[in-house]
Specification:
It contains 3 helices and 5 strands; from the N terminus they run E-H-H-E-E-E-H-E. It has 107 residues and is of the alpha+beta class. The longest helix has 13 residues. The chain is elongated, with a radius of gyration of 17 Å.
Length: 107
C-alpha cells in the first residue's frame, strides 16, 4: 500500500483489487492485512460513498498511513527475481540504505 501512496502525504487511494494484482495475494488476505494495520494504529481508513448514475453507489477508501520516523527504504519484490550476482545485489542494497528516507525504491 505504501508503494502506491503519495510519499510526501502518506495518503493512498489504491483499491483492494489493485493491491491484490500488485502483490499476487487474494483480496481476502488484503482486507485482513488492512484490518491488522488499522488495529495496530499504522493505518487509518476513510470511506466515502458517491452515487453514480450508471453504477449506483460507489465506495472509495482513502488510506492514511502513519509516517515512519526511523530510517527506512522500500524494496520492490521484483528485485529478488532478478539474477544479480550476490555482490552486486548486496552493493545495491547498501547503496540504497545510505540514501534519504523514502526517496526512491530499488527495482
Amino acid at each position: 500500500m505504501k508503494y502506491c501512496s503519495n510519499h510526501k502525504t502518506n495518503i493512498s487511494h489504491v483499491t483492494e483489487e489493485k493491491l491484490s494484482l500488485l502483490t499476487g495475494l487474494d483480496e481476502r488476505t488484503i482486507r485482513r492485512s488492512i484490518k491488522r494495520l488499522k488495529d495496530t494504529g499504522y493505518l487509518t481508513v476513510q470511506t466515502t460513498v458517491k452515487e453514480d448514475a450508471d453504477r449506483g453507489f460507489i465506495k472509495r477508501n482513502t488510506y492514511f498511513i502513519k509516517p515512519a520516523i526511523k530510517d527506512y527504504f522500500f524494496l520492490d519484490s521484483s528485485f529478488f527475481k532478478r539474477n544479480y550476482p550476490a555482490k552486486i545485489a548486496g552493493f545495491l542494497l547498501l547503496l540504497k540504505a545510505i540514501c534519504l528516507n523514502n526517496t526512491d525504491t530499488v527495482q
